[in-house]
Amino acid sequence: MARENQKTIYAIVAVALFAALVFVGSVIQVPVPAAFGMTRIHLGNIFCLLSGFMLGPVSGGLAAGIGSGLYDIIIYGDMLSAPFTLVFKGLLAGVCGLIAYAGHNRGENHKLNIVAGICGSVTYMILYLGKSFAEGLLLGSEMGTVLTALATKALTSGINAVIAVVVSVPLYTVLRLALKKSGLLEKLG
């Protein structure tokens, strides 16, 4: 029983740690003006994918969603978009973790991890761009303005996705090896 409790504590701490990493990664950004509002290139998605790789689909999704949602609330004071961000970023990491841990894999297949990172990123992009499109139309913007804003957001989201996959996959490989050698990997789940 004590061993189960200890494993639960490690899992909670891991989710909190990765949520904090996602939050801090989201702070490191380059703002990009769009036709309505702003978009940005940031490092948060690296840590969202890393959460999925390290913690699996459920815990990784929680960490990514919580860290990103808190970022929206604390940095932007945006209570309206925070629930969407929580779900969208949670799904980014969740899809990544689901694919990386598919079958008998435990995030150890490098090629599958690349596919997992791409699929998680594409999932997020579809959700984010779909929300942006609907939001633009609901706000009464002209279709041309909405599509122009969407093009800018698609470009920055694509850049974020490429950076996230290119950095998170090798970073995960290095972290996994270090955690395995230290004995911490097994304690994470």
TrEMBL record:
Domain of life of the source: Bacteria
Q: Which UniProt keywords apply?
A: Membrane, Transmembrane, Transmembrane helix
Q: Pfam families given for it?
A: ECF-ribofla_trS
* Keyword Transmembrane helix set for record: yes
Record field: transmembrane:
12-34, 46-71, 83-102, 114-134, 154-179
> What GO CC annotations are associated with the protein?
membrane
Q: Does the keyword Lipid metabolism apply?
A: no
Show the PANTHER family listed in the entry.
Answer: UPF0397 PROTEIN BC_2624-RELATED, UPF0397 PROTEIN SPR0429
Q: What is this protein called?
A: ECF transporter S component
The species this protein was found in = Candidatus Acutalibacter pullistercoris
